[in-house]
Amino acid sequence: MSPGQAGEGRQAPQPQGTPASLPPEGGGDEGPCPGCSGALRARGAAELGDLGGHRRAVPPLRAPGAALVPITLSGAWWASWVPHSGCSVADRERIGQDSAYEQEGKVQFVIDAVYAMGHALHAMHRDLCPGRVGLCPRMDPVDGTQLLKYIRSVNFSGIAGNPVTFNENGDAPGRYDIYQYQLRNGSAEYKVIGSWTDHLHLRIERMHWPGSGQQLPRSICSLPCQPGERKKTVKGMPCCWHCEPCTGYQYQVDRYTCKTCPYDMRPTENRTGCRPIPIIKLEWDSPWAVLPLFLAVVGIAATLFVVVTFVRYNDTPIVKASGRELSYVLLAGIFLCYTTTFLMIAEPDLGTCSLRRIFLGLGMSISYAALLTKTNRIYRIFEQGKRSVSAPRFISPASQLAITFSLISLQLLGICVWFVVDPSHSVVDFQDQRTLDPRFARGVLKCDISDLSLICLLGYSMLLMVTCTVGGPVGREFQEADLEADSECPEV
Question: Where are the transmembrane segments (predicted)?
Fold first, then answer.
């Protein structure tokens, strides 16, 4: 039944016991309900009896081309509706297109539901009862589960012009109107700018933005994050976020995560990945190397000059009195101390690191071992002279060299033990120059010598130095007894 549809047609025959149908549109007096003019029309003839008695008589639908007929209503429902409508059945009032009657908005869904049922039954009858009029045994009774499948398969245009379909869950597709709140001429109103029916239909030309421009504004909730920034979602607002930059040695793993680079790497400029930290070493042209190298060259030159002088005057009384054998040993130790400077600046590798371990403390051990032996020789000679005129033992040049090399061998023994316990190798220290700004981070290539190992390496040399320093003043007590001793002890 579709309210508001009007048309001329013949009067439907009326069953007995029912009131007369409303007259056709345009006939009779309007009576006390002038807004109810018009006729309520429908396809075919339908008469609703007393709904309270659940009785109805629906004649067959009209044949194609048959005229429309008016519908007569009676019963408790009609009697209860008339007082609220302002119309009177007794006055034969009509509801038409020009009446004040306003149909409820949800009636169209009821009509579409009836049509959906009709289309489903029609399709079911066509498939199960082809060529038959009325119900066939396969539809008597109707299988509800099978009928539901046909209902979900219907597809037709509803009374409002919208397609009527159902999805796999039996739900009708959502249809939404999209409104925009617009200000025009000092008044505000909502304007339809689009709709949603399975997909978005948006009419950009109907949209208005601040400043009366058509340019789409940028989102004020959250702008896209730049490379190297992660999204931190705002609590309670999953579509909004804050952009936080990856700091320090972090790089961007994905849109929401920053991760620290490995210890030997630093982030790239845009912090989207990691790259190796540059490795540096002490260069020969570095200011930190030029001055030590200059002093080493001067020291080596001076040492060689003294050696050449000693060799030239090797048999003179002065050279002999100074203990030329130990003097040569002392000069050799000084020469090693200066040459070690070149090993400290050379590029660290297995060979360079091994030579550093050997010669770093060996030169000082040789020098102080020779000085200690000479000091001890003078002390024993004059102490023995106080008790007897015989010479003390082990004061010959060969004995002095044997004592000196015995002291040096202890240093070499310690170095050998160190090589066995901790083999020499080079390492890259990434912590020494790990700055707060990763752009300036550097890895330092150096030999693997810890502070403790260095102290142990130089500890023996320091012991010889302290012993020689403490024993040195003893020779001064014998300055008046022997001029030779007075000339040797100040060397300490």
Answer: 288-314, 326-346, 358-379, 452-474
